[in-house]
Amino acid sequence: MTHHTHSHDHHTHHHGCGHDGCHNHHSSGASAWIAPAVSALMLAAGLLMSHFGIQFFADTRIELLWYIVAFLPVGAPVMKEAAEAIASGDIFNENTLMVIACIGAFCIREFPEAVGVMLFSSIGERLQHRAVDRARADISSLIGGGIKKVTALRDGKSIQVDPESVSIGEIIEVGPGARVPLDGVLTDGDGLFDTSALTGESVPRSINRGGEVLAGMIALNQSVRLEVSRRYSDSAMQRILAMVENASSRKAHAEMFIRKFARIYTPVVIALAMLLIIVPAIAGALTSYHFIFSEWLYRALVFLVISCPCALVISVPLGYYAGIGAASRAGILFKGGNYLEAITRVNVVAMDKTGTLTTGQFSVASVESTSIQNRELLALMAAAERGSSHPLAMTLIRHTESQGIAIPHATYMSEKAGHGVTATVDGHTVLAGNSRMLSEAGIAIPAEAGLSAKGSVIWCAVDGEYAGCAILADTAKPDASETVTLLRGLGIDRLVMLSGDRKEIVDDFASQLGINESHGELLPQDKARYVERLASTPGCNVAFVGDGMNDAPVLALSNVGIAMGGLGSDAAIESADVVIQTDSPSRISTAIKIGRVTRTIVMQNIVGAIAIKVIILVLGAMGYASLWGAVFADVGVALLAVLNSMRIMWKRY
Fold it and tell me: pTM of the entire structure?
């Protein structure tokens, strides 16, 4: 089992065909349609003149000239590209195939079909490009890009400036209903913001003065002023857009398969087209079979027209792009199509407890002490913990201050990661930490101490004697048990909870939620080892979900690393493959669902396109498919595949 190989094969996202573009001679807008319109009118006029037996059109030379003129508006650009492709050594590209097919049709006097093939392929091409560009535009507007101007306050005046020109520390104004263009801090009053573009949450969020407001949020009730805290290019919105854009450079296996398939498919079909002429010709020479060259050449030309793998090369990358877009609308960032694919194979979900399934907002539930008063114990513990950044330490200090207890000053303090702190306070040596720390110091904890604790315990010893403990409780997130139900509903039965907390608490919390496997008292490196062992077990595809702050190594060792609430945390964005921007663990199941829908639709496109091409090839070889049928099938399949890919965006998850 491979752990993720972070491939950065930065192919630009082109709508390729085989090796390079399915014709890329398209300009956007109305001017793009002039050439096909001219060709279409001339083709229609030619067919009508033939039908009504117009006298001057009966001359074959005039008819040929007429159709050559009709062919050139759409054919000339393709011929030019075909010549350039051949010059650069790329013989099997779609332009070359189309040109050969059209010249062949002219040779066997199928003039209208020669024009028709090029005309419909060029119309189809323009429609495909339009669909792809529309799809792209839809996706980036859903994610909320495209801020053109910002109102900045300079010299007391409000002026409109480019977002790129605003520097950190400047004050900007955002009107009600407008999208916040840059990250900043609210300078006056409180504001109500729609955060759905970033988090996918529908409930507006109230932010107080001094609170952080991120680019992409929408000010709801009144105009607000912000002091800019990050450059435009570093803003939350731009980071998301950049991640979605970069995501397309990390290809899924299906995309890789299609690129390889296109390289093999086209030459094989050309070889078959040649055999379609050679085999009957040999049969005609050696047996009594009557070989008609023009009939078999026509069948070979049908092969050439259907030999372009355009539908696949366009729709598969677009499918993954749409999946990444749909996820980002739900507040989930996939860092690549490869992770969108990997998450569909996940059958084990390992979750960190604190901050992922619980709020991480601790409160002191109770204090037990032996020989000294509770207040004195709290003062000593808070003094010892003052230099620590551990969330439990900070909670203890806040609680002590809220009780109006004066916290003395520690003269010495050292912290042992994953264990606790040792400090000198008022001449006493104070140890505050987990049970492992006290037992390593040779201090026995009485059997009855902290027995009723339904939370994390900070044990304390003073001058080598056990002194008491503080019990801190954490609350489950509102959707924690729903998360378990949703994951089970997706067929993921093995759910594992990992935590640094006491084993009893972890097991108790896991059984409340219905998680059948839990491991407590783990240091960060123990979690990493456990996940690595799990991920290397045959048949296990592990997603690890953590808060991204201290879980970076674990995220990197799982098959799919998912970071929760990662909007503010750069560490999470760096180390995770998927970033869930809200604090709702139920989004894990949404991410898996989007991955599965994307996979299904991409497979439909691959199977459907190949099946239709094979049917046309068989009918063509038997003489039942015309060039018209071939070109309609080719263009139609490509357009259907593009529309099918867009279903990923339109679905509700």
Answer: 0.76
